[in-house]
């Protein structure tokens, strides 16, 4: 494919997609982890595709490379990039990790974990730029934004009705066994956290996860995974959170239980970030997830997610919100190529 030819979603490597619909330029910016096979740039980082119609996309431009950040604490990962406008600037959140920096093992049962599992530094970093095309520069190269003693990922920005910014993130099942969603307040310039994390919910709160456990495997339930939070305020003021996890409906030959990646969501009964959170049934199965919601320039509510988990591509759905219920209206195979 020539560099000047438009790309289509079936041809675009796309894991953990995140769309910014820029009204000023009427352009959709689609961020994902850097893939040198399409960007032409080596290194862990973030790249962005652009489109004006969600069908034809430019070849990606690299907007962030971890190795170019002086003194940064980690250069592996580059997962779940997303970009938010805040205070007239653009902030990139993306997850990095460093396996050479192990975390102290928590005592048994600190997070409900009956045994110790080795873990290492992983967390979302914050980087800033004056442009949606970067380059983005890390705000604090010494540590991730959430508490560094926690193994976390997939941080996203939430701003509460008072204007207080928060980072909402997944606390890794590798450290908790039953993965959790947590939130922590951010300073007004997003440069640091304020106070302690707030527990939101745990993955096993979604009771449907264990509905189809194969017979004879009652003791093979853990772990439970939390991935990909994204907050959305509905027209009636309700607060919902997209998130992803794995079903537990396939019995492995080694006695374990697994299942496909799924896109699900929860709603806050109070309308606030602290919850309590009510879990809903999955929106999309078929090894799909890490979705986010955005509006087209024509006002349609859309969800983009990736499928399958390995060698992922972007899939688009038209959505609707009825009260506190989020519903899939139709798959946009005309835009994403089907599959």
Automatic annotation (TrEMBL):
InterPro entries: GH43_arabinanases (IPR050727), Glyco_hydro_43 (IPR006710), Glyco_hydro_beta-prop_sf (IPR023296). GO terms for biological process: carbohydrate metabolic process. The keyword Hydrolase applies. Pfam families: Glyco_hydro_43. Pathway: Glycan metabolism; L-arabinan degradation. Keywords: Glycosidase, Hydrolase. SUPFAM superfamilies: Arabinanase/levansucrase/invertase. GO terms for molecular function: hydrolase activity, hydrolyzing O-glycosyl compounds. Belongs to the glycosyl hydrolase 43 family. PANTHER family: ARABINAN ENDO-1,5-ALPHA-L-ARABINOSIDASE (PTHR43301), ARABINAN ENDO-1,5-ALPHA-L-ARABINOSIDASE A-RELATED (PTHR43301:SF3). This is Glycoside hydrolase family 43 protein. It comes from Streptomyces sp. NBC_00093. The lineage of its organism: Bacteria, Bacillati, Actinomycetota, Actinomycetes, Kitasatosporales.
């Amino acid at each position: 494919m020539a560099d000047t030819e438009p790309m289509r979603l079936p041809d675009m490597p796309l894991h953990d997609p995140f769309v910014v619909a820029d009204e000023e330029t009427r352009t959709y910016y689609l961020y994902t982890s850097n893939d040198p096979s399409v960007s032409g740039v080596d290194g862990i980082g973030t790249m962005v595709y652009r489109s004006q119609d969600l069908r034809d996309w430019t070849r990606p431009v690299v907007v962030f490379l971890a190795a170019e950040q002086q003194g940064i604490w980690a250069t592996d990962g580059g997962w779940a990039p997303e970009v938010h406008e805040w205070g007239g600037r653009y902030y990139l959140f993306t997850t990095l990790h460093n396996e050479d920096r192990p975390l102290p093992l928590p005592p048994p049962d600190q997070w409900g974990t009956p045994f110790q599992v080795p873990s290492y530094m992983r967390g979302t970093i914050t980087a800033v730029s004056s442009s949606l095309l970067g380059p983005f520069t890390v705000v604090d190269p010494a540590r991730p934004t959430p508490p560094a003693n926690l193994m976390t990922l997939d941080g996203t920005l939430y701003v509460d009705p008072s204007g207080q910014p928060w980072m909402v993130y997944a606390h890794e099942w590798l450290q908790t066994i039953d993965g959790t969603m947590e939130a922590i307040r951010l300073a007004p310039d997003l440069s640091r956290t304020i106070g302690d994390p707030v527990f939101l919910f745990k993955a096993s709160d979604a009771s449907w996860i264990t509905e189809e456990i194969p017979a004879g495997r009652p003791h093979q339930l853990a772990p439970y995974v939390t991935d990909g939070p994204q907050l959305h305020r509905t027209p009636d003021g309700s607060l919902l959170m997209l998130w992803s996890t794995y079903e537990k409906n396939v019995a492995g030959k080694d006695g374990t239980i697994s299942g496909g990646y799924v896109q699900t969501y929860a709603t806050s009964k109070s309308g606030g970030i602290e919850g309590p959170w009510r879990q809903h049934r999955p929106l999309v199965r078929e090894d799909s997830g890490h979705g986010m919601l955005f509006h087209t320039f024509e006002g349609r509510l859309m969800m983009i997610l990736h499928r399958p988990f390995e060698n992922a591509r972007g899939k688009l759905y038209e959505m609707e919100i009825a009260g506190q219920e989020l519903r899939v209206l139709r798959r946009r195979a005309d835009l994403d190529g089907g599959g």
